[in-house]
Amino acid sequence: MQKIRVVVANRPRLMRELILATISEQADIEVVGEADEETDITDLIERTRPDFLITDLKDRESRSGLCGFLLARHPEMRILAVAAERDPSIFYWALVDIHSKTVETSEQGILGALRLSSAC
User: Fold this and answer.
1) Which of 37, 40, 56 is nearest to 48 (CA)?
2) Do 48 and 5 form a contact (C-beta atoms < 8 A)?
3) What is the pLDDT of residues 52-99, one digit of tens each?
């Protein structure tokens, strides 16, 4: 069985330690990295390629710019933004929107499809 690879990047430190204690004893979960500072998260994600990022929830009303940036670069990754205390947490993921168009089987059709896809 392949383990679920997780990066934990919560502030404050106590919250990060509680999350680590919660998941560290799970046989199917592997913590592949920790970040103390938000500025370290992007590089850590690039190096470790986790399945999940667990981070702190700063604002329930809007998704953080970092979440949007990371999901655009790594749509296969999931993000769990954990709220402090009893507030609900938020789970983010990206979906690929697949489009199709009928293309004429000709030189012109093929070139048109290539040009259309590069403009999107």
Assistant:
1) 40
2) yes
3) 998 887 766 656 778 889 998 999 999 888 877 666 777 778 876 656
pLDDT at 104 over 70: no
Q: Which candidate, 84, 81, 87, 85, places its Cα nearest to that of 68?
A: 81
Q: Which two tokens stand for residue 112?
A: 């048109």
* Residue 102 vs residues 98, 109, 111, 117: alpha-carbon distances, Å: 14, 9, 13, 13
**Rg of the chain's alpha carbons, rounded to an integer?**
19
Question: Class assignment of domain 4-119?
Answer: alpha beta
Distance CA 8, CA 35 (A): 6
Q: Is residue 65 within 8 Å of residue 79, measured between CB atoms? A: no
- Give the strands of the sheet with 52-56, arranged side by side: 29-34, 4-9, 52-56, 78-82, 90-92
Task: Give 11's DSSP letter.
Answer: S
